[in-house]
Amino acid sequence: MERFLLRTLGDNMLDLIYAKDEQGRFIYANLALVNMTGAESADSILGKTDFDLNPPAAAQAYSDDDQLVMRSGQPLVGREELLTNFKTGESRWHSTTKVPLRDDNGEIIGIIGITRDITQIKQAEFNARDLNAELENRVAERTAELSAISATLEQERNLMRTLVDAVPDSIFAKDLNSKFLLANEAVARGMGTTPENLIGKDDFDFFPQEMAQNFFDDEQTIVRTGEGLVNREELAVNKETGNMRWFLTTKLPVRNDKGETVALVGIGRDITLRRRAERAMRESEERFRSLIELSSDWYWEQDADLQFTDIEDPNNKSSYTRDEVLGKSLKELPGTALLSESWIEYDDHVAERKPFRDLELRRVADNGKTYFISLTGLPAFDEDGNFRGYRGIGRDISDRKRSEQHIHFLATHDSLTSLPNRFMFSQILNLAIESAHRYHRKLAVFFIDLDRFKNINDTLGHEAGDFLLCEMAARLKQCLRASDVVGRLGGDEFVVMLPEPENAEQIATVAQKILSASLEPMDINGQECRVTASIGICVYPDDGRDEQTLMKNADIAMYRAKEEGKNNYQFYSPDIEARSLERLVLENNLRMALERNEFFLHYQAKRNLQTGEIAGVEALVRWQHPELGIISPAQFIPLAEETGLIVLIGRWVLKTACAQNVAWLKQGLPPLCMAVNLSVRQFFDEHLIQDVADALNESGMQPALLEMEITEGMVMQDAERAIRILTAIKALGVRLAIDDFGVGYSSLAQIKRFPIDTLKVDSSFIRDIPQNREDRAITEAIIAMGRTLSLTVIAEGVETKEQEAFLRDHNCDQSQGYYFSKPISPEDFVSFMKKQAACTIVYPPVTSPE
């Protein structure tokens, strides 16, 4: 019975199983070896040697192996070789294991061999080398060992027994009730016992109930139907140890001579390592796909012809569909172009099979949207070094490229108006100069400065100033042709380039259009504002042949336009440059005048028109340059306003005037109200209140003896802000006066909102009275309004007896002008005061106004 079972088992195994005696003659061969050699039957092989069945060289190698095993008594395990099937002519890889065959006394009487077809494993190994390192660890299937066969029943039993125990696969036989009849060492090891201990037991003794029941049901189906179960993957769990193993199991019926099923035979190959390897590969692929999904990159492959063969882009980060990519080369991708390199450079690079990084592409999709893509690729080679293509990653860099473009825009354009900035305009102008030089053409450069912008920016705030600049930028562009260029240099300075002007008349026409557009009113925070422009014009090549000269001369011409009263344009000329140089020298000297103590004050007295006494005094700044002599305030005050130096100068005037007033008191002069002018910049300076307080504290002068004079236009530009500043000054106890009153056309309702003490009638209304009826009417109205508001009214610029008499007759409080007193030095003012105190003035009675 056992012999019959072993023969059935041997003939149903795919491995080549054989045994040889000491002379190398086959004493056993299974059906697989018969088929391999092409012999008619197993009996036709018995008694033959390898020299009868194989080529001489192979036969000699097999014989040498047999003799080595028999001499050493040690097995030869896992020798791999390529064998040819004599029936089919096909060559396949096999792994051979040989062990010594011993008799009952332990004497070596031959060898037993088993040869397994490992072609698939070898092919997998070859493929693994070509694919990636992950597949290199795929576990090679272990080779089957040997079982004993004997020429006689006893020899055959020992042979088969040795063979079955040597095979790494689990080999077993069961009766019709699924009780073990035979089991090799592999089965026993898996169940934690010995082969002898398995005999008569079933799976319920070793496996969990449900699992054992499934095995039993399968085997009973085989017994009932006579049909085997081939290559089923099954999980076996030892219920004692919990050890889990996967097997590829084949179970076949054993039939007697009558064809009746008398037993079952089974072979189970442990595929746990293979299952783990497959699971590891699946997990690796899942991780790869997860990384691709989570990453901002996508994966691609190309063949040796540089055509795309694969693309892994789960979230369509590439903007391409698979159909748009597969089978195409990079240059054939729709709507795609290189950003920097040419296709020729790219072709030369890949022809040398070099890696490439960050190859940037622009892709315009069917929907019109533009994408920017970066590709990085590595060449791939097979194990023989043959080029197989490229594989790599792609990345959407659209956000980065747009950021780079935005950064470039910010670097070359003004952030507020989006006009070209100084750097960009310089580049454009240089290119235009080169073109004009090459084609013998002219071009014009305008340097534009907005008049009164600083006043609006200081009074209404920076937001209002920004709005004004943006509005002016838009107006400038509307005045120009498409070929003209306008840029902003900074602050309120703009620059314009006119390429190829026809003549000077055309240039002047454009300048006049700009002036007209600038003068149009604009609404800023509910207030109507107007600015004018001063334009300097320079023409290439007449006024300069390079960018620096053209810009400098246009700037010089612009300052000439300002000197001419603003709101006009001036063409550059050498005379203008000379005057500009004078202005520059004056500005440089002005910056050092305070340090050199070149400023001094003169004082002009005010007369009380009712008593004839000195009612007060106004401090007026003067500049004595050591080389240029006395410089008129009309020259340096506007320059100080533009440069901002007026704040420092005004602070010095305030402190000096207060100190002088206290000095006069100490000399015995009566208390006088000292008037000090405030410029626009000084009035809106954040340190003004502290400057006034410091001047009073340092000098010790009573606040009521100080009067700050501001112009009507200053308070009307931003009335609310002006009220806050005036209120703060008033809180110090200082008097407030509005200078040059009447030119701003303020109403009674407006004036009464301000905490002022004095109105000073502008000298332009005094100059022609009493002859001019309109001036008389305006002056009378101002005096009446002042008296209505209980304000002191002072007339400026009084130069004649008739003017003063008119003012006295119409109840004006005070007069100031050359008729009573010119501005004089502090020492002369002391003498003047003493002389006035000694005089007795008798005025005629005041008559009623006509």
Per the principal axes of the C-alpha atoms, what is the gross shape? elongated
The beta-strand count equals 32
Mean pLDDT: 84
What's the architecture of the largest domain, going by CATH? Alpha-Beta Barrel
The figure for the number of domains is: 5
User: What is the end-to-end distance?
Assistant: 159 Å
CATH topology-level fold name of the largest domain? TIM Barrel
Strand order in space, largest sheet: 24-25-27-28-29-30-31-32
Walkthrough of the structure:
Residues 583-837 form the EAL domain. InterPro entries: Biofilm_reg_signaling (IPR052155), Diguanyl_cyclase/Pdiesterase (IPR012226), EAL_dom (IPR001633), EAL_sf (IPR035919), GGDEF_dom (IPR000160), Nucleotide_cyclase (IPR029787), PAC (IPR001610), PAS (IPR000014). Pfam families: EAL, GGDEF, PAS_4, PAS_9. The strands form 6 sheets. The chain has an 8-stranded mixed β-barrel, surrounded by 5 helices. Helix 18 (547-563) crosses helix 19. 42% of the residues lie in helices and 26% in strands. It starts with a helix and ends in a 12-residue tail after the last helix. Mean pLDDT is 84; it is low at 132-154 and 840-850. It contains 30 helices and 32 strands. It has 5 domains: 1-168, PAS domain (Beta-Lactamase), CATH 3.30.450.20; 174-294, 2-Layer Sandwich (Beta-Lactamase); 295-402, PAS domain (Beta-Lactamase, 2-Layer Sandwich), CATH 3.30.450.20; 439-571, Alpha-Beta Plaits, CATH 3.30.70; 599-829, EAL domain (TIM Barrel, Alpha-Beta Barrel). By secondary structure, it is of the alpha+beta class.
